[in-house]
Amino acid sequence: MARSLGVTRVAVFKHIKALKEAGYEIDSGPDGYVLKNRGDFVYPFEFSGREKNIVYFPSLESTMDKAREMARLGCPQGTVVVADRQTNGRGRLSRKWLSDAGGLYFTLVLRPSLPVVLAHRALFAASVCLCRVLRDMTGVAAMVKWPNDILVDEKKLVGVLSEMAGEGDMVSYQNLGGGINVNNSPQTVEPRSISLKDLLGSPFPRRVILEAFLNEMEKADPAGGNVIDEWRSLSCTLGRRVVIQTSRQSIDGIARDVDSDGALLVEQADKTLERVTYGDCLHQILEPET
């Protein structure tokens, strides 16, 4: 190994020691070193080709807050802030997001060439990309819930959050935060939540999910006309009776569609359509209306 790398054996030993201290299981013997267990780590060097874009913290108050700070200072497109824990993680409406060890908590900084009026499409694209990654890689029946959750069997697996700043009528930066219950146990505090570990019966590597999501986001076209259609195809909200709670009112009806702006169209008892742009969406039935 020392000859291949062009370094001394002492240098190799020091690096192996550092990897062990970081949590990797490495056996040493007369024939060299053997990596016994790669572990569940999201260190920058785990992401080949993206090392410079991954900003890792063992613990952080909030990846969204840190990403906002970095975006304002001019960090490049594709910067990802990731943490093993968040001490003040949050979801929509500044609600606290339980962020224990084992979950995947990250914020992706985008600098899309998008007008501000289309910024919502990036959030829909992120939800679609994450949902597809989870379905394809794990086989779980993940579905998107308006406006920003991913559920499995009506239990929350993922929360997605968007924050942006504009310059004139164009987006200056847009941060997409994700909280994914991977190898943690959120249901001990949030009974309507679930983790991949619970669904699969064994741990799943967080880095694999994050890398696949970043790959999908690189190919995504938020401005494209099919983003909303893709979201519709994965939705567990459309066709269901819902109650939308906002700061001003409660809207009860059937979720019929989302429009091109991402607003939910709710058919009320008098058959009129209410266009809802924000609020908490509560599913009232388990089966879609037929």
As a whole number of angstroms, the C-alpha radius of gyration is 21 Å
Outline: elongated
Provide the succession of SSEs: HHEEEHEEHEEEEHHHEEEEE
Structural class: alpha+beta
Main beta-sheet strand count, sense and barrel state: 7 strands, mixed
Helix content: 10-25%
N→C terminal distance: 64 Å
Strand order of the largest sheet: 3-4-5-9-8-7-6
Strand content: 25-35%
Q: Which segments are poorly predicted (pLDDT under 50) over 5 or more consecutive residues?
A: 286-290
DSSP strand tally:
14
Count of DSSP H/I helices: 7
Mean pLDDT: 89
Task: Describe, in plain words, how this protein is organized in 3D.
Helices cover 25% and strands 31% of the residues. The strands form three sheets. The protein has a seven-stranded mixed beta sheet with strand order 3-4-5-9-8-7-6, sandwiched between helices. Strands 13-12-11-10-14 form a five-stranded antiparallel beta sheet, with no helix packed on it. It is built from seven helices and 14 strands. The model is unreliable at 286-290 (pLDDT under 50). With 290 residues, it is α+β, with helices and mostly antiparallel strands. The chain starts with a helix and ends in a 7-residue tail after the last strand.
